[in-house]
Amino acid sequence: MLPNDKSGVFRSQVRETETTSTRTMNYRNLTSTGASGGKSSAPLNAFVNGQGRGSGAESAGVFGPNPCDQEDYCCICMDKIQWKKTLDKCQHSFCRECIDSAFQVKSCCPVCMTFYGELTGSQPRNGQMTVTRQPFGLPGYEGHGTIIINYSFSDGIQGPEHPSPGVSYTGTFREAYLPDSAEGNKVLRLLQRAFQQRLVFTVGTSATTGRSNTVIWNDIHHKTSSHGGSQCFGYPDPGYLLRVQEELRVKGITEEGVSEPAGRVH
């Protein structure tokens, strides 16, 4: 039992694990015609669900060498690159017209999902994120203290970015835990940036309760329990800090430009 544990009141809420996918990239309707006009339209099935090579969709050893490894091959139109354009962060290259069209759908690399620009989500604007620290350690991080994150949202009215504009939604309170280590504080900084960009929560239907028009998690996983292991959304879970950093990276949240952790974020 945690000191000053509030989980007894909110246990049914903080245990929810609902997600609303924001990684799905609908490239099905994209087509590309090269400068010579010789390229035909092609569906981007490999990238529809964010399954670029960077997310584990390797084809080598199953379907043969991945053609995206070829320097002059465009993975969007699936043809030879014409008017080459190389992305500055990940260094993947495409036809200029192909990648420009893809970025009109979503500003991320179709191969590795590296995000370009700043993504703003649909998290309700009335939320608060507060941070406190306790001296006790989490399982697997016994030599460190514990960071406790509290998220709170009051009831409100859905905006145009939500599923049912003008309809009321139910707020929520969530509590999450990080080790007070160097890596844990790094994740905290990234989560605070994600919260500022309205990416941590959204409005939708709870996969746990089935309740609609409520504030739910938005594909950035949190440890809502201090103990119990991964099956109970708690610690120990040695891979969690790396996994959540990857989830944040896909949304364009990296250490670049991230400031020191604050005690309260609106």
Automatic annotation (TrEMBL):
Enzyme class: transferase
Top-level taxon in the UniProt lineage: Eukaryota
Region Disordered: start-end pairs: 1-47
Stretches with biased composition (Polar residues): 19-30
Transferase found in the keyword field: yes
Cited PROSITE patterns: ZF_RING_1, ZF_RING_2
Subcellular location, principal: cytoplasm
Protein name per the record: E3 ubiquitin-protein ligase
